[in-house]
Amino acid sequence: MPGTVLLLAASPAGKGCLVDAASVLPVLAAVAPAVLSGTDTANVVELADPLEPQAVLTRLRAAAAAPGPLTVFVTGQLQLDRRQRLPHLALARTTPSTVRYTGLPWHWVREELRLRAAGSTTLVLDLHADAETWEWLRSRPLDCGRNVAVYGRVAPPPPSRRALAVPAYMKAVATILRSGWRPPVSQLHEQALARVGVGGYADLVLASGGGVAGVPGGYVPRPPYRPEGPRPQSPPEGAPPDGLMEADRREDREAGDGDPHSAISAAVQSGRHPDADALAARHEQAAVEAHGAGSQEALHWAEVRADLAMFAGDPVRSCRTWLGVAAARLAAGQAADAPAVEAAVDRAHHQWGQVRDAVAARELGASLADLRSRVPGRREGALDHVRRQLRQLQTQG
After folding, report:
1. Residue 155, φ and ψ in degrees, nearest 5
2. Can you say whether residue 38 is alpha, beta or left, with left for phi > 0 and alpha for psi between -120 and 50 degrees?
3. What is the reported pTM?
């Protein structure tokens, strides 16, 4: 069955524009329709700087009604209307005072996609927000509907209004797809984040199998652990009770020759997160015994386990592990501005932003604040961000 692709790039004309959204369309349009969709064939609809929200709604409604997989790529900026304070995708005629009438209400997107079958719809987003909308998003998720997979990022306002921001995430997605092969969308997302780099860690990352997406807290992780090796396959019928396939066991035993990363990848992809962590833990312990706790080999496996905790949805464990990695690197004599040290603290900072238990957040926040005082990182205000969040946590009892 053919797929459907909607390419939407929109931003206001004039001084209210934050991002050069339309600049990404030539790169996306150069990708084969089947690659954009991930199907054998696909129909592609392109909307560049549309003027009227009703025109966008008509195209979106038609795309949502089409059978088969639907992939929607949206590049642009979000603004709040002044009456209801709801997010809108700004269109060519949108101004701060006319958002309600000239922007596309985001809940229209959610409602049009609401009745599509689960697993058939993917949103890939590269959105920028003005200051007011950015603060709104920090405490609220971007609701896209529970049956929609959402990947991408929302960027804060640019530091200077004199230059337009670049849709770097979407351009990275398009560049990867121009290779002619579309990886699973979660891997595509990770690869695009890798190309955007750590300079984007103030963004909100959107990565959700459901449609309520957003990572408040102010920091994006580095591109998550991506094992090398062949694409993982589902475990065969009759796999061992603990979930580790015999092939994985054999790979785990080829000391010096085998690569355990592919076994870990297979476990993660099939949802066997405890097995993935157990395998990484065995290699971490072996590295500690062979090379010492502060060795690069041991720290590598600690970092793998931190990312595995993130994949498993355990931000407490992930944050604590990244804090331990940063402390171990500092104890081993690495400089506070060494890239590996800064990266570990940045990643701990991001995972801390995902912790919803106030007691755990206060505990980890105190350790993070101590580390941030020693490792401020490349962005101004990181330590102040931790202190502000800690003060808010103290009021929660």
Report:
1. -100, 150
2. left
3. 0.56
